[in-house]
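Practice problem 4.
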């Protein structure tokens, strides 16, 4: 906020990196790199995380040994948080602190392997760095590195070894030590391949032997472990330069000067006193020494002073892989830093992505709506077709039912009525018949339809009441449709019912008179309608009901 700038780095991460400046005065690159890595390890609480627990968490998240997949930032954040939750109880890491430490460690990993901030990292690269930074013995770390690099044939290929060295060289390069331990790793790979006896690859024993020789590109790894082991060690000796007693940490003894000890601070700064010079051979002690070890060192010092032939010269304790002139051709500022994020450009890109996503969503929504509409239209058409078929089926059934109900058998004419009688004569005869209602009406016997080829088929046609042009509505004659359910399905009963429907329609009403030419008064017509109603009631009770009871077996 004060500088009005935007950075990819976490503020706490920047503070940790600034604290590394206190080690810039160390004269030797291996120790300077080791001190910086140790400082990062302690600030990120990784010295409380066991190597075994870290590997188990990777296995639980689906990243076993030799896994060469890609992991995203969100999943990496979750994975690192779970790793911190397995820390020792001495660290006293809470859930909130675990999330913060995971963010800082993720920031470090992204600066190592994802400078352009693509959001994707190789799992094997992350795991190799965590193997170096977690707490374990050096031999266990070497063994874990072999299992990460080895192929199913149990050999390490030159390709995997090159990728491994390039990944590990990013750490000292980030700490501005790339001039010594960064750059091209081809010479280091060749030094390991030259030790191999097989052309297939590098075996496990050859890999361990090569690492124990401390190749120059990786010499900071064993130095880092010796530094961690000697932090709390106290030596019963006094520094001959700064007079510090006891010496804590590394203790350095000159093998040219008698009884000349130095603390690690004086050694790192290149301090000298009296006859001691920087080119004298030096013996390093990271643990407390015994009398036997001190006696052996004294004998070496005596031999160096008495005989020039056996004088021990200062020798390299690591495996050189490149020339000294080639090493210092690099500069500390070679590493590319993460680009400064442009807020306006970032917002523009996000807005463009949102608009594209919205347009894509609208297109998908319209396509889905159109598809649903077509589906509904198809369903509606199917329902219409089904409805049309049902309507046709109903009409067919109705026509069949009407055809069956209209089949006519024989009919019996009323006595005294001839085909040539007029309607008035018919009405007078009907009234006289109904006047004698005390006499029971003879039941109508169904007559079968005569064969048209027989002589009986040319008999007289029977009359009906249809030509009376009378529509009674004050009452309705009893319908015989309900009675048919109780009758047997026989031909005689069907003929009887059809005959009754033809003679006495069920929709006859007497509210409207359509006899303008008959000259009959209204009172007379009402009386005739009442008489017809009584006659029909008697007819149903005396003619149809006995037949119904006989059919039902009463």
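Answer key:
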């Amino acid at each position: 906020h004060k500088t009005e700038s935007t950075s990819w780095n976490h503020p706490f991460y920047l503070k940790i990196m600034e604290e590394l400046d206190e080690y810039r005065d160390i004269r030797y690159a291996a120790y300077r790199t080791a001190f910086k890595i140790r400082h990062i390890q302690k600030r990120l609480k990784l010295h409380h995380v066991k190597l075994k627990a870290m590997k188990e968490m990777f296995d639980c998240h689906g990243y076993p040994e030799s896994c060469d997949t890609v992991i995203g930032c969100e999943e990496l954040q979750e994975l690192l948080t779970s790793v911190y939750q397995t820390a020792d109880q001495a660290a006293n890491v809470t859930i909130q602190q675990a999330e913060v430490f995971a963010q800082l460690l993720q920031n470090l990993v992204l600066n190592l392997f994802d400078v352009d901030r693509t959001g994707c990292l190789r799992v094997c690269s992350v795991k190799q760095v965590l193997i170096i930074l977690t707490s374990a013995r050096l031999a266990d770390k070497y063994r874990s590195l072999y299992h990460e690099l080895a192929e199913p044939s149990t050999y390490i290929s030159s390709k995997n070894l090159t990728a491994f060295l390039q990944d590990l060289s990013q750490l000292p390069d980030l700490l501005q030590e790339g001039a010594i331990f960064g750059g091209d790793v081809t010479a280091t790979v060749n030094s390991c391949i030259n030790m191999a006896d097989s052309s297939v690859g590098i075996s496990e024993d050859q890999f361990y032997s090569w690492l124990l020789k401390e190749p120059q590109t990786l010499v900071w790894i064993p130095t880092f472990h010796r530094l961690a082991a000697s932090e709390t060690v106290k030596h019963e000796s006094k520094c001959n330069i700064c007079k510090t007693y006891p010496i804590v940490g590394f203790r350095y003894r000159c093998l040219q000067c008698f009884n000349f000890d130095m603390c690690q601070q004086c050694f790192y700064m290149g301090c000298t006193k009296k006859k001691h010079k920087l080119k004298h051979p030096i013996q390093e002690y990271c643990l407390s020494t015994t009398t036997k070890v001190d006696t052996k060192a004294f004998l070496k010092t005596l031999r160096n002073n008495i005989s020039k032939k056996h004088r021990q010269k200062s020798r390299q304790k690591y495996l050189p892989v490149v020339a000294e002139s080639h090493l210092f051709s690099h500069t500390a500022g070679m590493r590319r830093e993460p680009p400064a994020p442009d807020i306006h450009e970032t917002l523009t890109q996000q807005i463009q992505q949102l608009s594209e996503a919205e347009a894509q969503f609208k297109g998908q929504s319209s396509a889905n709506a159109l598809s649903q509409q077509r589906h509904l239209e198809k369903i509606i058409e199917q329902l219409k077709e089904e409805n049309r078929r049902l309507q046709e089926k109903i009409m067919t059934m109705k026509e069949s039912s009407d055809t069956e109900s209209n089949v006519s058998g024989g009919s019996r004419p009323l006595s005294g009525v001839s085909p040539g009688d007029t309607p008035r004569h018919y009405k007078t005869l009907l009234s006289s018949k109904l006047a004698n209602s005390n006499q029971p009406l003879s039941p109508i016997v169904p007559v079968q339809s005569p064969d048209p080829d027989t002589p009986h088929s040319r008999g007289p046609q029977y009359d009906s009441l249809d030509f009376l042009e009378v529509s009674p509505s004050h009452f309705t004659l009893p319908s015989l449709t309900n009675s048919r359910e109780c009758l047997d399905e026989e031909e005689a009963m069907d003929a009887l019912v059809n005959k009754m429907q033809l003679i006495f329609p069920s929709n006859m009403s007497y509210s409207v008179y359509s006899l303008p030419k008959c000259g009959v008064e209204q009172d007379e017509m009402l009386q005739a309608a009442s008489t017809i109603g009584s006659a029909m009631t008697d007819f149903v009770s005396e003619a149809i009901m006995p037949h119904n009871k006989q059919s039902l077996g009463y």
